[in-house]
Amino acid sequence: MEVVVKVAGARLDKALADLTELSRAQANESIKAGEVLVNGKAVKAKYAVKEGDVISYQVPEEEVLEYVAEDIPLDIVYEDEDVAVVNKPQGMVVHPSAGHSTGTLVNALMYHIKDLSSINGVVRPGIVHRIDKDTSGLLMIAKNDKAHNALASELKDQKSLRKYLAIVHGNLPNDRGIIEAPIGRSDKDRKKQAVTAKGKPALTRFHVLERFGDYTLVELTLETGRTHQIRVHMAYIGHPVAGDPAYGPRKTLKGNGQFLHAQTLGFTHPRTGELVQFTAEAPAIFQETLEQLRHR
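^ thats the sequence. predicted structure below, dont judge the formating
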């Protein structure tokens, strides 16, 4: 594969990552392996590209993933013939991907719930929506394609109820508020999201539940479902989620990642048309940290 540099100055590894689907780490590895040539010659990653440079590179072979059922403990909050609601633990990836082919929620679902929708293929059977690896809480699972389409449509129309608990840095000036700012891929870091004019509309509502001086417990309601939405929006207003390794400060509360929990989930049942709602308590580390904040 070949790409032509249009803007000079960037390091070769960064330029290659910006111009292709390769991550910067993949670009670096390819350069070290001699798989990247600039104008037909091998150069180092620190080479500053020039306008008109032709970069030749090899597309890495995709990792072949195997999806197997695994007997992993799973907190199934509700289940019937159409849908299931599960309480995902913090630290569990939702579906297999490169580097996470086992130990995911999908691997557990395949063992505990035999019938799963096929809308998203073998990669994400039954998965209607996702939450981050280090975010705990409720997810809806579709057991057939009809249910999946109905649940996905309701999510798209912003009719589902999704409320989160979060411990955030600082003392919010208002008890309630709305954060409305578009979210898209960050121009500075391709692995992050950011508030950007080029992004998609995103709206988050917040309600302060408790104040601890330098930290605040908030309830957050998603009106849209952009990647990392709550984490990006709270960082954008200067109150990042505590423990967030990507969008928060290094000096933060000790835990296993961001203190963010999908506590409440509500939707229209695809078969009965009934409005159903479920709640799940925050994990122990979250509750213990709250007690420490209350008594310090």
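The two ends are 59 Å apart (CA to CA).
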